[in-house]
Write a structure and sequence with these properties.
Distance between the termini: 49 Å
GO molecular function, one term: ligase activity, forming carbon-nitrogen bonds
Number of strands: 8
Shape: globular
Number of domains: 2
Keywords: Ligase, Ribonucleoprotein, Ribosomal protein
Organism: Embleya hyalina
CATH architecture of the largest domain: 2-Layer Sandwich
Protein name: Ribosomal protein S6--L-glutamate ligase
Largest sheet: 5 strands, antiparallel
CATH topology of the largest domain: D-amino Acid Aminotransferase, Chain A, domain 1
Strand order of the largest sheet: 6-5-4-7-8
Pfam families: RimK
């Protein structure tokens, strides 16, 4: 972790299997005047140690500056069936703020983002997935591929639902096809 923090200066640390953005930390390298330049301070080290003890492993990725939102996509089979922006509402821009829950907003799915989401879903061979993308300065960046989508009923038949007969129907189709249905 220290090597990543020293090289990238700004990182996100999270467990490999999480839920609802719980246990995610953003860490910035200490400045050159710090007693621990480029390394974790005491409090941060304790937090990271606690996460490691709870989850046994942590993922470290470079922080991607974004416009205060990320793109949530739902893929079923080889189709994108839903797409929306996960928007922060907190004054400090934090999407995981306990007093300012995130919001949802309509999103245009650009071809490059759609291609990235479909490729990312195909890598682990998932039939249903929910990739999260950030709009980075160089284009879309996949931050994670969730092997499920828990909020599907909240977006079914809304402006975010891109499937012709609803997300429930889209989920059932791949299950019924092998059964001859």
């Amino acid at each position: 972790m220290d090597a990543c923090l020293s090289q990238w200066q700004d990182v996100v640390v999270e467990p490999p299997h999480g839920h609802a953005s719980v246990d995610i930390l953003r860490l910035r390298a200490a400045g050159p005047d710090s007693p621990h330049p480029g390394a974790l301070g005491t409090r941060t080290g304790i937090l990271v140690g606690h996460l490691l003890q709870c989850h046994q492993a942590l993922c470290v990725q470079r922080h991607i500056a974004d416009p205060g939102r990320d793109l949530r996509i739902v893929v079923i089979g080889s189709r994108v069936v839903a797409c929306y922006h996960h928007v922060n509402t907190a004054p400090d821009g934090n999407t995981r703020h306990p007093l300012h829950p995130h919001g949802w907003a309509a999103a245009e799915l650009l071809p490059r983002a759609e291609e990235s989401a479909l490729r990312a879903t195909g890598v682990p061979g998932l039939d249903v997935a929910s990739p999260d993308l950030l709009e980075g300065p160089d284009g879309p960046v996949i931050t994670e591929v969730n092997p499920s989508f828990s909020a599907w009923s909240s977006i079914e038949r809304t402006e975010h639902d891109r499937s012709p007969h609803g997300i429930t129907h889209a989920c059932a189709d791949p299950l019924c096809e092998p059964l001859g249905g």
